[in-house]
Amino acid sequence: GLVGLGGMACAGPVARLAALCAVMAVQVLAFELLPRPPATCQPGSQAWQPAPTEHLGLAAACNIPRMSLEEWAAFDGSSPVILPGSPDNMFARITAKDHLLARFGETEIILSTANTFSYKKRRSTLAEYLQYYLTPRTLADSAKDSYYHFGDNNYSEWVNFTEHYVRPPYLYQREPFFSFGIGGSGSGVPFHTHGAVFAEVIYGKKRWFLTAPDTRPDFDPDTTSYAWLMSNRTRPDGMLDCTLGPKEVLWIPVNWWHSTLNIGDTVFISTFI
Questions:
Q1: Do 134 and 184 form a contact (C-beta atoms < 8 A)?
Q2: Letter string b/e over residues 64-75, b meaning 16 or more CB atoms within 10 A of that residue's CB
Q3: Distance in angstroms between the alpha carbons of the first and the last residue of the chain
Q4: pLDDT tens-digit series, residues 113-160
Q5: pTM more than 0.85
Q6: At 82, which helix (H) or strand (E)?
Q7: 3-state helix, strand and coil shares in percent for the chain, rounded to the nearest 5
């Protein structure tokens, strides 16, 4: 869910200009407060929304191999694979939009810019983010000025939240770090790398683009994943590409380049090992 300057859920040109001025006035802060929505704004839906018409064609066929848990047990983990998620749907019930709003609506969250380095942060309540700013992205949005909820969770405030998530089967050498996120349709993060991770979709769909650590893709860190895809409709040789839905887990080995694109409101959790 990216919160860009043009992402006001019910903002016309005047409201957008006011939001832009509000953002520019606080750029010097390390953590910026998310601009309040106009008083005339009406809250959004109490349910996660599917992709709008203009985003329906963003999904693609998959060229990443799928494995059963039995096959995974004998695999060396050297390349990305797709695993089945847990049949337990407790975490899906907990992360339904109406439940999150009722239980954690006033909880403060930290939003990060949706560019490769995610260097700017903003504070918001979960309710403000979900109700007013979780809007479909457009090609005019800039990654460095769009804000996204992923990681940076203060789990001391999200009491008993991640304990209901069934982590993927793995011989964990330490307690994993969980990163929970929510993205609006067309949001995502440009290519980046980090440690090995299991990434699971709970609601919505997420398209993944991946290349090996020694094959840096051609991209601009401040161009959104959506804009990158629209200008690179032919998949480069060697690039892995797959759209995942609920109960599907992507294994990403350490330092693999990857970019994400959410299709419809997307709720996801990553397990960093």
A1: yes
A2: beebeeeebeee
A3: 25
A4: 888 876 788 889 999 999 877 889 999 988 888 888 887 666 667 767
A5: no
A6: strand 81-84
A7: 20, 25, 50
